[in-house]
Every structure is written in C-alpha cells, then in structure tokens.
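Form P-L/3: holo structure prediction, ligand uridine-diphosphate-N-acetylglucosamine.
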Amino acid sequence: MDKLVIEGGIPLQGEITISGAKNAALPILCAALLAETPLKLSAVAKLKDVGTTITLLEHMGVQASRSEDRVVLDASHIHTQEAPYEMVKTMRASILVLGPLLARFGHARVSLPGGCAIGSRPVDLHIKGLQAMGAEIHIEHGYIEARASKLKGARYFMDMVTVTGTENLMMAACLAEGTTVLENAAKEPEVVDLADCLIKMGARIEGAGTDIITIHGVERLHGCDHQVVCDRIEAGTYMVAAAMTGGCVKLNNARADLLDAVIEKLRDAGVTVESDATSITVKSNGKLKAVNIRTAPHPAFPTDMQAQMMALNTIADGVAKVTETIFENRFMHVQEMQRLGAQIEVEGNTAIVRGVPKLEGATVMATDLRASASLVLAALVASGETIIERIYHLDRGYENLEEKLTALGAKVKRTS
Ligand SMILES: CC(=O)N[C@H]1[C@@H](OP(=O)(O)OP(=O)(O)OC[C@H]2O[C@@H](n3ccc(=O)[nH]c3=O)[C@H](O)[C@@H]2O)O[C@H](CO)[C@@H](O)[C@@H]1O
Ligand SMILES: C=C(OP(=O)(O)O)C(=O)O
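OUTPUT (holo model):
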C-alpha cells in the first residue's frame, strides 16, 4: 500500500493550477445518462472517483473516451440500468446514477453506496424525493429498485440540505412531466455547475444557487460542451498549506467568490489573501492566530475544509473551537494529529484545539479523504519526517498531489 513521506519545515513558494472539481465532475458525468447525443467535458480531473464513475457508466453501455482532461460520453445505447455493489462500494457519489436512469429509462437498480467513513450517510431524501415524483421504490438485498413509467413534477421540501440529493432530484426532474420545485435545496457551487451543464443540454432550470430550484420537465436532452468548475476544496487545501508553512503561493484556475467563508477565516488567522477573477494568492509569515470554525451548508464554512482548518489551528496562537454540524463522525484526523503532538480534545461535535509551538514528525494513518489532506498539511510543518499510510484516500480527491506540492518546494515522496 502506498505511503507518503514528507519532510516538514519548508515554506511553500510558487504557483500551481487547481484542477476541475471532483464534486462537480461526478454528478456531471452521471448527467451523461440523460443525453441522447454525446456530452463533451473538459477540466475533468484524473482522480480515482472519476475513473470509478466512468467504469460504472461503461458497464451500463456508455461509450467513453478520455484524453488528458477531456472526457466524451455517449449514452445513446444503454443496455443495463444496474449499478452493482462491486462498482459502487468505494464511492458515495455512485448514487447519482439513480435519478438519471429512472428519469430516462423508467427503471434503475442501484446498490446502496459506500464512500468516506465520516458518518452513516443515508439516502432517504433522494428516495423520498423520487417517490414524491411518482416512483415506486423498494430496497432489497442492499439495492434500491426504482420504477416509474414517467416521473411527474412535484413540490418537494428537503428536510435537510443535501448536495447529492439536490443533484439527483434536479437531474430526474429534467425529464419529468411538468414542473418540479425543490425547496431547501443545496446552494453549493457544484450544484450550480451541474445546473449550468444541464441547461446547455436543453434542461429548463431556474434558481440553482438559491434554496428553491424550479425545473420544468422537457421531452429529451442532448449533449453539449462543458468545462467543469474549479475545485474550491483543492484550492482551499493549498491555501491552508501556504498559510501554515509561512509561504507565498499563487493558485491559478481558482475562484475566490466560491471560497468566501474560508478566506474570511484565513484572514482572521492573520493570512494575506488576494485574488482576481481566476486566481488566488496567499501570503503568510507563519504566525497564525487560532480561529473558531463551524461547518454548515454553503455559503457557510464547508465541512470538506474542516480537517484542514483544524490542522492550521494545531499550530496557531490560542485556543480554537472547531464544530462539525454536517457529519457525525468527521473527527477521525484528531487522533492522528495528536500523534504529531497536537493538543486537541473532542467534546461531542466540537473539538477544542490548543495551538502548540510546533508539531513533530511521526507515522500516521489516513482515514478518509479530507482527514488525509489535513495530515499532509500537518506534516508540511512538522519537524523531521512524517510518514502517512493508506494514502489511497487522497487519490480520490487530489490530482497530482505530490507533483503540485513538489512544484511549490515541498519535500514529498510516494513509496510503497
Ligand atoms: C460527491 C459529493 O458531492 N460529496 C459531497 C456531498 O456529499 P453528500 O451529498 O453525500 O452530503 P449531503 O449534503 O447529502 O449530506 C448532508 C447531511 O445530510 C444527511 N442526509 C443526506 C441525504 C439524505 O438522504 N439523508 C440525510 O440524512 C447526511 O447524512 C449529512 O448529515 O456534500 C457533502 C456536504 O457538503 C460533502 O462533504 C461531500 O464532499
Ligand atoms: C466526503 C467527500 O467525498 P464523498 O462525498 O465522495 O465521500 C469529500 O469530497 O470530502
């Protein structure tokens, strides 16, 4: 199993380019199932989850071709509407084939998904929303079996804000008969990017990016050209890396307007953040102040940046409260950070982080995607060598991580 070996203590300097967002690419790849002609995508990052999704689509009969960051998907000949357990167990986002398959073919059989071990992660709201649109759904032997000769537009209030739930229902509603109104919808930029792509495919969607999305169903959708939005979480992770190491880093293909809550917290910590329409520059003298964090749906502080910001707090001056309100088990990094000398106590869904003057290198284990990223950040400032085991999680979400960090001057190598 691959490991990362990181020699800490080097301020990061230079510039890198941020990749297309994993969490936008995955629903957009699944949206290809709705189209009768090829969907042509660019800025699709080379990530494990992207590969898994394409393999899943190919299993259903989608013709896929991939070169560099471009992917072309032709779903004109689908021969099965089944997503088997073996193909979805590693990836939560595989649930996103459910809405498109049901809407276009009237049937879907999708295994209950896997994904990061950060909580129980039910899909009840996806199912209830499709039932509100007239689908008959049963769960049998770990599979969601859904049928509807034609989905019908409906008004559906989501009890909790769910990102993939909103995406699944928005995709399904595109081919439903009549108008669907999704209330308490997720406002994440990846939902907006999916809606932008669907609109180019011929969908009639209003309100994406607000908490009420209205979708007027159409008869059919076609392919289009679409560039996936930049990855705000990847960008945020490198911003924290620059801040913690006391460096100066320019991120190209990064949008500050998608990162307001993170930028606000970095500024509170004493970091300089400048931006233009397509880049963000972060400068830090390495002297950081502790900042309290409370995760919540967009535009509040993203749960996918909680672990990274906790890493920053481990070496900041003062005491920070980090509260996780989205997932019940998203503090898996705490124990590993403690191995590096961090002082953290967990009380329910809040971690109290007391900054220490320095962390010390040790062997740690990555447990989920962003926990892994936070350990990389801690390792970049720890004295001596840190070995991070089980880094396959990182390959789900960070394209060319070692190359990008090396380009910024970090000493990072992958060994087996
Ligand atoms: C592929 C993708 O885009 N993943 C992101 C997506 O995950 P994902 O879409 O799975 O997360 P959700 O927004 O659905 O989850 C939010 C909360 O709602 C709960 N819930 C969700 C659906 C449901 O049917 N029932 C229910 O109770 C979840 O357990 C969680 O407590 O949004 C999360 C929250 O921003 C991010 O951390 C993930 O990176
Ligand atoms: C939790 C994440 O991913 P997923 O929803 O795909 O498990 C993430 O991107 O941080």
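COMMENT: The radius of gyration is 21 Å.
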